[in-house]
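Hi support team,

I submitted a single chain yesterday and got back a structure, but I'm not sure I'm reading the token output correctly. Could someone confirm the output below corresponds to the sequence I sent? I've pasted both exactly as they appear in my results page.

Thanks,
R.
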Amino acid sequence: MVCSRDQTRARQKKKRQLKNKNRKTNKSSTEKTPQVSKNELRVINKVVEVEESITEEQINNNIIEQNQEIETLSLIYQNDFKQVQQDPQTVIIVSFLYLEKILSIEFTFGDDYPSFGIPMMKVICSVLGSKYKKQFLRHLKKVATSLIGCGAMVFRIIEEAKEYLKTLSSIKNTIATITTATTAT
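Hi R., thanks for writing in. Yes, this is the structure output for that exact sequence:
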């Protein structure tokens, strides 16, 4: 991302203020407070960068895109779609069948979605164990991250989720077949 000179200076100023604050806190406190690590500083810089880069106009554009996406998703998924909350953040749930059980994905839209960020996602499913649920969610976040800036992405995430689960079912069936064949011999 290309930053203007003012944005770079503002970011550097925030870094200095944070470092000075940590130094003052460490000197004045009898307890040791942890220093900010390089990774934490990178995260802070990224947050500052995103906050500085999102304008009111972009937030309004994101809200318009979110509303259009919600309308489209409600038409596509009909009874499998539910909008739970609209203010302060939009929360929607899309459900579909997986291994004859309902799997739901909850999406929460932030101000930065879809231009600069991905929706927060939560998988609700009794069929997937916690290990598979974490892998599945990690995969969906990776897909979503690759779609940042491409506009509305929930439909693509859901379709990718269905494909991923088909592949997972196929692998499980293959393992079960091999196990059955091996124990039969």
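A quick pointer for reading it: The mean pLDDT is 77. Let us know if anything else looks off.

Best,
Support desk
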